[in-house]
Amino acid sequence: MKQNTSSTRRLAVNAAFLKDIKDDSHHLKVLLEKISPMVSHEKIASNHWGEIVELWSELRDQLALHFSLEEAYGYFEEAIDTAPELSTKAEQLRGQHTQLFESIRRLVEAASEAPADQEERIAKLLTRYMSFIKSFQVHEEAELTLILEALDSDLGVCD
Fold first, then answer.
1. Would you say residue 6 lies in a domain?
2. C-alpha dist (Å) from residue 83 to 15, 53, 123, 138, 149
3. Is 104:59 a contact under the CB 8 Å cutoff?
4. Is the pTM of this model over 0.90?
5. Which of 21, 50, 82, 117 could bond 11 through an S-S bridge, CB–CB 3.0 to 4.6 Å?
6. Which domain holds residue 39?
7. Which Pfam families did the record assign (predicted)?
8. How many structural domains are present in the chain?
9. Residue 5 domain-assigned?
10. pLDDT tens-place string over residues 78-119
11. Is residue 99 in some structural domain?
12. Is the sign of the CA dihedral 12, 15, 20, 25 positive or negative?
């Protein structure tokens, strides 16, 4: 009888992590949906500037939680342990958390100093926000791809 001597890799799924991430993702989605119509046009943004600044502040705080949950529950480590060839990508994505957070933090700071009647300044801040959102979406998609690649490796999809 032949004995299997290869080690078995497993991608662990932490139930607490899944619940926290699910709740966080829901809050993040709702918040982004609240912000979206208000930043769709400069005039609308000017009329709702105080509310936008508050929502961007809430977004900053939610992203702090979002990034800390991802790092605290160690899905990066799980991906690396399961598929070590993904470690470079995981480290790169983890490093983007600080960059993304600093970007939204600086945006909120600048927005809180901008008067609602300065449409040109508001337009520049809206452009910065849209750029931030695009970067954040690309980042989130890359994280999802990393997790799926780790799962594929763990499940032997490519075998």
1. no
2. 21, 41, 44, 22, 8
3. yes
4. no
5. 82
6. 16-154
7. Hemerythrin
8. 1
9. no
10. 656 666 677 788 889 999 999 999 999 999 999 999 999 999
11. yes
12. positive
